[in-house]
Amino acid sequence: MRKQTPTGIIGMVHLKALPGSPGYCGNLDNVERDAITDANTLLAGGVDALMVENFGDVPFQKQVQPVTIAAMTRIICSIVELSSAPVGVNVLRNDPAAALAIAAATGASFIRVNVHIGAMVTDQGLIEGKAAETLRLRDSLDLDVAILADVGVKHATPFDDDWSLEQEAMDAWNRGLADALIVSGRGTGNPTRKEDLERIQQAVPNAKIIVGSGVRNETVSEYSLASALIVGTAFKKNGCVENEVELNRVSELCHSSFVSR
Description:
The protein has eight helices and eleven strands. By secondary structure, it is an alpha/beta fold.
């Protein structure tokens, strides 16, 4: 049985560096305050869901340390309590077990898994999907938490020379039992190709497809095949991913034709 997945606009809450990361400011209260401010702005602007990730923890680890899980749990718990919309978790670089643990503790509704099946070469080295472990852990915890799995994930290169977007989509949906498939551009903020959405829809017609990067006011109409759009950079001041979320940017995109269709 597939889990319910978020629809509409999913606004990103990019956490600043957490304890244990090189860029940590030394004050977790300030990190939490900024995250809650962004979350409130996104909700005020009309997003349909939120997703929180440890964006500031560069350079990323394949699996995170306990202190990262603890800090994210604290902040996400606060966001879940204030949010009337579903909240999701993405633990970078690829730690679905940590994401599920955080969801279990906070009441989050979904997680994003960058590499769910197969293998990708990344700046963290080779990352292998752990769909079997992730699904079994979710079942053992009895969680009603959806798994949003990337296909052709950004900031990565396929390990297999015979890789194709269609085959990964079919494997993630039919064998990895993902609840929705995320397709993105090559990197953060890079546009997602409309043609890639069409290829995935043809390969897996029953799958829910989510756009994972590069959404702008001028491009949102291209993504009518998607059930949801993940938006981060476009909501930030001056369109810079490191800046704070701006209300007018959120409101403008959330009142676009995509949302009203």
